[in-house]
Amino acid sequence: MSITSFDLNLLLVLDTVLRERSVARAAQRLHVTPSAISNALAKLRAELGDPLFTRKGRGIVPTPRASELAPALSRAISELERAIVQRPFEAERCERTFTLAMADALQVAWLPRIAAALAKQMPLARLRVVGIDSLLSLGDLGSSEIDLHVGVRATGPGIHAESLYEERTVLAARKGNPECASRLSRQRLDSLSHVAVELAPGRGFRDPIAGAYTRAGVERHVTLTVATFAAAAAVAASTNLVATLPESLLVAQGKRLGLVAVRGPVPKHGIAISLCWHERTHSDAASAALRELVKGVLSAAGAR
After folding, report:
1. Residue 23 and residue 17 in contact, taking contact as beta carbons nearer than 8 Å
2. Backbone phi, then psi, for 147, in 5-degree steps?
3. What is the dihedral of CA 130, 260, 301, 256, to 10 degrees?
4. By the 8 A CB rule, do 291 and 111 touch?
5. 65 in helix, strand or coil?
6. Tell me, what's the pLDDT at 81?
7. Is the predicted pLDDT of residue 304 greater than 60, yes or no?
8. Beta strand 59-62 with 53-56: parallel, antiparallel or unpaired?
9. Average pLDDT over every residue of 172-178
């Protein structure tokens, strides 16, 4: 006998009769006639080569073979019910592992608050955070790896996005950098040496900051390129290079690193930050709760 040719509905009948110890009560519970239960039991006897039940007075008792099957059937059907029946979402009971994709600057600025909110609202859940390069290498939002992306708005089939706030950028230099000792002139701005950030080398990820300088007619002299904003900030903090950073990163780490915003005709630029997810998780209650949690934390950015 092979499970592929076995009518699994018969096992539900057997489990119900084992629980009820009555053909009539099993029929009521399954909303069928007693004759339908009897026919199902007859098929099971033929398939399993065992009578399964014997009569005792007005009731029935299971054979040793049926008693042996009872606990395995009960566990299997209970597991299937848990998997299939959608129960109300309870945040405090959620044990899911979520994967959130964010650029490193947003991680530094907002991840401590997101982690605190998660611990409070979903204390049993776990959070895995990846960067933009990992987001792309894992197959973007369309894969089963990523639940949520916070950053530049994603586009494509099945993508949902909600605008959060505009992240302003600032030109940062170490405090005491002789190249930025006073308010910069346009000429001095053109002469600065920059450390630039390339978040996903070779993956076609557009650098919005480079575009802002080009539109402003400023020729940015890039002498060093790094993969993260945190690295750019560290370099600017210990050299005479300057770095264009998200303002939230400078607010979070500027004082500790000794970085200050450079005054002068620096191109003003904002990066629209959005909450992005795929249709795959759109109707999932746990994923929706995570989206609301992250949105609640980052709503502070819009009022900053």
Report:
1. yes
2. -95, -35
3. 60
4. no
5. helix
6. 81
7. no
8. antiparallel
9. 93
